TrEMBL record, chain A:
PANTHER family for the chain: SNRNP CORE PROTEIN FAMILY MEMBER (PTHR13829), U6 SNRNA-ASSOCIATED SM-LIKE PROTEIN LSM2 (PTHR13829:SF2)
One protein family per Pfam: LSM
Family the UniProt entry places it in: Belongs to the snRNP Sm proteins family.
Top-rank taxon, per record: Eukaryota
Metal-binding listed as a keyword: no
A GO biological process held by the record: mRNA splicing, via spliceosome
Gene Ontology MF terms in the entry: RNA binding
GO cellular component term of the entry, any: Lsm1-7-Pat1 complex
Stated name of the protein: Sm domain-containing protein
Cross-referenced Gene3D superfamilies: 2.30.30.100
Entry-linked CDD domains: LSm2
Coiled coil: none
Keywords on record: mRNA processing, mRNA splicing, Nucleus, Ribonucleoprotein, RNA-binding, Spliceosome
From TrEMBL, chain B:
Name this protein carries in UniProt: U6 snRNA-associated Sm-like protein LSm1
InterPro entries referenced in this protein's UniProt entry, alphabetically: Lsm1, LSM_dom_sf, PTHR15588, Sm, Sm_dom_euk/arc
Domain of life: Eukaryota
Subcellular location: Cytoplasm; Cytoplasm, P-body
Record keyword Nuclease present: no
Length: 118, 131
């Protein structure tokens, strides 16, 4: 696709209009932006599970997974543990009642103080 | 530490039957043969599974080398419960037809939405086209 290939060949002609990024997206996908957004939202999925491991790229391994909307993602029914690539993770939500914010705050402050000393 | 974190943990999944979801929404099921640190995968005896509602169809595809960046998630298929799913398998042509119908329906839905928005004075694409 044009967008990922980097530079576009040649130069813009004299007085030629600048082409917006949005135009590029539309040309290469052949869709309108609202349609692209729609597809993006459709692809979004939520998975709950127990955290098994995580690494520096936010690659996540979950066990005992539950999909919030099994009707929408029927293929997840046969999967019990899964690996999620960090690059596709939008956010991780922790259960509020199991998260000791006070303790976390203290820990971060302590670490910040230690880094200052060095 | 008796487990490997991150992509290294995929070593444990080698030679198992895995379900891989790609960024474009496709679902592949196959035996994982090789991995690397980017989660590039080699899948053997792969099928592509298409789901529409409670029905699904399988298309045999063969060997895949999947570039890691396209992987959304991968999970081990629970072989014991694989046949007990509340889903119905149909043949390829049927599922492709169903998929097409779903696509058409979606487009109609989008048009309806757009119309409703336009009636209330919101033109999504025009607003973005302005610059």
């Amino acid at each position: 696709m044009k967008i990922v290939d980097g530079m576009v060949e040649g130069t813009r002609g004299r007085g030629g209009r600048r082409i917006s990024w949005v135009k590029n997206v539309k040309d290469s996908t052949g869709m309108k932006i609202s349609e692209c957004c729609e597809i993006l939202l459709e692809r979004e999925r939520c998975i709950c599970g127990t955290l098994h491991s995580v690494d520096q790229f936010l690659n996540i391994k979950l066990t005992d997974i539950n999909v919030t909307d099994p009707e929408k993602y029927p293929h997840m029914l046969s999967v019990k543990t899964c690996f999620i690539r960090g690059s596709v993770v939008r956010y991780v939500q922790l259960p509020a009642d199991e998260c000791d914010t006070q303790l976390l705050q203290d820990a971060t402050r302590k670490e910040a103080a230690q880094n200052k000393q060095r | 530490m008796n487990y490997l974190p991150g992509t290294a943990s995929l070593v444990e999944e080698i030679d198992k039957k895995l379900l891989v979801v790609l960024r474009d929404g496709r679902t592949l099921i196959g035996y994982l043969r090789t991995i690397d640190q980017f989660a590039n995968l080699v899948l053997h005896r792969t099928i592509e599974r298409i789901h529409v509602g409670k029905k699904y169809g399988d298309i045999p595809r063969g060997i895949f080398i999947v570039r890691g960046e396209n992987v959304v998630l991968l999970g081990e298929v629970d072989l014991e419960n694989e046949d007990k799913l509340p889903l119905e398998q149909v043949n390829i042509d049927t599922i492709l037809e169903l998929q097409r119908e779903q696509q058409v329906e979606r487009e109609l839905e989008q048009d309806r939405k757009k119309k409703a928005m336009a009636e209330r004075g919101i033109h999504v694409d025009q607003a973005i086209d302005d610059f």
